[in-house]
User: Fold this.
Amino acid sequence: MKQFNIGIVGATGMVGQRFIALLENHPWFHPVVLAASPRSAGKTYEEAVGSRWAMDTPIPEKIKKMVVLDAVADKEKIAAAVDFIFCAVDMKKDEIKALEEAYARLECPVISNNSAHRHTPDVPMIIPEINPEHAEVIHAQRKRLGTKRGFIAVKSNCSLQSYVPALHPLMKFGVTKSLACTYQAISGAGKTFQTWPEMNDNVIPYIGGEEEKSEQEPLKIWGALKDGKIVEAQGPAITTQCIRVPVSNGHLAAVFVSFEKKPSMEEIKKCWAEFSGEPQRLGLPLAPKQFLHYFEEDNRPQTALDRMLEKGMAVSIGRLRPDSQYDYKFVCLSHNTLRGAAGGGVLMAELLAAKGYLD
Ligand SMILES: NC(=O)c1ccc[n+]([C@@H]2O[C@H](COP(=O)([O-])OP(=O)(O)OC[C@H]3O[C@@H](n4cnc5c(N)ncnc54)[C@H](OP(=O)(O)O)[C@@H]3O)[C@@H](O)[C@H]2O)c1
Assistant:
């Protein structure tokens, strides 16, 4: 496989740190540029990230001494030095839109964890096991941008990374409606218990903008490619409540679902066990062998026990049972900064590299 020099924009943040840890021994992608805000620019990565480093493994030696660039002011230099960038920054939405488009116009593909472009119709929002064919819209986007290589592809929100994969293989039974309550980790806000002590022994029933994203983004993922755009699906109807809980990593969801043609519990479990997608077929480096794992034990999945399943890239499901208001209910879990953010971004980049979009 071709080797790629990559940049991490937002390298000092929670998701940026995950990219650094994940790419330490990646067989195809090699970080050669790290960028963040003017606060970090000019410092070595070790100085810039300081006590914010929140990964279980130490900062890779090679990364420690790299000098951080300014993601905005140095964008020409960065674009010239890399084959593509991963982008995860905490900036205003219109600033992120402009920044990502500027990199794409500099012929530098952008694999983004930010929400700014998720509803731009010719920007694909890809969960590699579910909608890899949406990558084809990149041809139309390049035409609009006037680029040969440059484009933007985005990852969906971390909140839906457990229940959309769990619902997807069941769509053939005609999912009519679903309700999901999510119990979301503090790393989803870029925080740790040190930086957010108010979260100890606490639950906060509000995460700004999260419920809208959790209800709307699945419709783009299940949308269809038409005339150079992704046209959003009309259903199923999804309603959510998103709640912040005192957990370091891992978003859990309690899900209810109804169908046009109600399957049996055994049929549902068989669909989950047999489901696999393009990443498994292509043998991509970060692809989990089994994407959806069903636990028969009543007390699983548990956030602390199961979030790292298959290096944090699998989805754990349990407690499937009939419901009195909906057909069924179940619980599912995914790691928010791995499958839900950096890991999902790396897997998407692996898919796009394997399909030639990053050549
Ligand atoms: N955490 C998650 O689980 C998760 C999941 C999915 C998506 N996301 C998305 O990923 C993005 C980053 O989230 P995060 O949790 O990693 O945030 P974070 O920990 O707050 O990190 C933010 C990063 O953005 C950089 N930054 C801030 N202002 C900037 C500016 N003006 N110019 C350039 N860089 C700037 C910061 O650099 P400095 O260190 O120099 O300030 C830092 O590297 C957000 O859009 C978020 O919605 C996060």
Summary: The longest helix spans residues 338-354. The domain at 159-335 is CATH 3.30.360.10 (Dihydrodipicolinate Reductase; domain 2). The two ends are 11 Å apart (CA to CA). The mean pLDDT is 97.
